[in-house]
Amino acid sequence: MAKRPRSTPAVRNLVVISDTHCGCRLAICPPTPNALDDGGTYTASPAQLKMWKLWREFWDVWVPQVTRGEPYDLVHNGDCIDGVHHYSTTQISHNIKDQLRIADAVIRPEVERCRKGGGTYYHIRGTGAHVGPSSVWEEMLAESLGAEPNTEGQYARYDIWKRVGGKGGPLVHLLHHIGTTSSAAHESSAVNAEMATSFNESGRWGNEPPDYVVRSHRHRSIAVEIDTVKGYAASIVTPAWQLKTPFVWKIPGGRNSQPQIGGICIRRGDEEHYYRRKVWSLDRSPEV
What we know:
By secondary structure, the protein is an alpha/beta fold.
């Protein structure tokens, strides 16, 4: 009689990063010379080298700590490259192939580490201005990285409903976009509204509401919690891996804010589920 294969334990950790904007001179970039299409190279700036140290601390120290060394699924929640947008000149190259090559160098080692440990990689579609119409460049990268496709065969999806830790674990809804505001006093409004909308739509159609709503796009991390019959639910916006661009320097709210760098983890523990956020900021402009 053939032996029944052992069932693989459900992965109890979900790590989420977003807004790497690779290809921008103000975004995450490997410290080694980065090859360009014309035979030249680009070397990371001092600010990018500081960001790279945080990137390594995130993956080498923080993620193993919060996951307790256990397997984790990984989601890139959109805007993997910077693209060519809004007449900006901060890109390393306007050749999308160059930007995709940098993104691959940044993300692939972490995807391989996730997969080697027993996890699965997922990719969400970001903003068309950055990743192309219908997120075509994001789709290209996600397929190259071996992201898990959806039922339509898209390697970069518009959203994911993800159960963490198998049956009975928390239900997470991830997509890239969320409303923004120029007022720090109302920063939580759209975040709370996103969760309220999710609960409304779930109740309207008889679906289970999410325990976690995860969004990105803003480059500013925030979390809003509400009590529920299952304990609590949270709406979370992830930090980014890009510093302040010329566009941010001119908009209300953004121009006074510090960049927020990092990611989040949602974990199903032995008795309860919970989330952790890791957010760094680089120093503001020095006194003169």
